[in-house]
Amino acid sequence: MDFGYGSGVDGVFKFISNADVMAVFFPKFGQSVVIDIRVKDGEPPLIKVVPMARSIADRLRSIKRMRPGLPRPQDIVAVPWVGYVEAIKTSGLWDKIADRIEQSGYVEALDKFEQSFDELVGMERRELAQLIMGDHYETLWARPSG
Question: Does residue 143 form part of some domain?
């Protein structure tokens, strides 16, 4: 499967292998998981589900606000994920990010990472239910009654 990344996510893997700050965002339901594996003075990596940012610059500023004890990141790997949340595991991308977290030396951060997965799956399911039920969505055209 290509998961929307041409022949696979191998190109994304290369960036993840060297990244200290990453964001995987889910346009279908407007959320992101932000992963910042930089550590300082015993402060563990940041792993947090947050609303999608309007731009990379906005995301970098938000990370600086969430981690005032660290300098603003110089760069970020931002990965749009347009498939279902659960497919991120079968693609191998989730495991690749988990490996980077594990390399930080804060293995307990992996629990937070897995919790973020469960949170994202729940958000996606709620969004799909709203779509099916029509909540927060409007019909572009209606079938004529008659």
Answer: no
